[in-house]
Amino acid sequence: METVAVFGGASPGFPSSLQRRRSCSSLPSAHHKPNLRAHHHHQLSAFPSSLHLFSYFPARPHARTLSKPRIFLPHLVASLEQVDETYIMVKPDGVQRGLVGEIISRFEKKGFKLTGLKLFQCPQDLAEEHYKDLKGKSFFPKLIDYIVSGPVVCMAWEGVGVVAAARKLIGATNPLQAEPGTIRGDLAVQTGRNVVHGSDSPENGKREIALWFKEGELCQWTPVQAPWLRE
Ligand code: DAT
Ligand code: MG
């Protein structure tokens, strides 16, 4: 519910994928599930309280800087903590070449949260809707044929800054221009076979997740490693 509060309402036309989620827990009872996010200030001495971020305590109370306009800290902290979601897809060439595990692990190791995952044969109309902004391009028909040519692996990932960071992990559209260390830079040689898709904005992240995932296919959960990834 924290993330819903940060996002506000659903985007027009599509229900927010966050609202479509049910809570997934393998534990016997939700009451026994440790909510480290909510209580770590009090329970884990290794993680100092961040309450100071919400208050203004001048280090030098008599300094002239006191008269300067103050930054509204709660607002600043809220924007730094914005949780985004992105749609990542292993394209048919990535599946055929046995790169599914390698590609998933790049996002997993980075520390983002997987909230949706499925192997899926994409129908023509969905591929066209997904790439509708490229409809006028000469390569559009070939692009659609490629995306529907075999199963893809659909993923929803969540995290602060996940959209831009995922694009960096993926690398440039043309794999020959993608930096070594990126997925495309390491694993592909041609734009028409660039193994992976990643949303290009938070808005498109929401739009694409709503497009590729159905009600009940997304999970909201709290990874046990959460307090080891973010202070
Ligand atoms: P990206 O996938 O990096 O977001 P994009 O959104 O511009 O790139 O294009 C979507 C896909 O379309 C891209 O991954 C591969 C294909 N594509 C883009 N430009 C192309 C081109 N000039 N020739 C052939 N395919 C192209
Ligand atoms: Mg794109």
UniProtKB/TrEMBL annotation:
PROSITE patterns (UniProt xref): NDPK, NDPK_LIKE
UniProt keyword list: ATP-binding, Kinase, Nucleotide-binding, Transferase
Catalytic activity line of the entry: a 2'-deoxyribonucleoside 5'-diphosphate + ATP = a 2'-deoxyribonucleoside 5'-triphosphate + ADP; a ribonucleoside 5'-diphosphate + ATP = a ribonucleoside 5'-triphosphate + ADP
Residues where ATP binds: 91, 139, 167, 173, 184, 194
GO MF: ATP binding; nucleoside diphosphate kinase activity
HAMAP family membership: NDP_kinase (MF_00451)
Protein name: Nucleoside diphosphate kinase
Origin organism lineage: Eukaryota, Viridiplantae, Streptophyta, Embryophyta, Tracheophyta
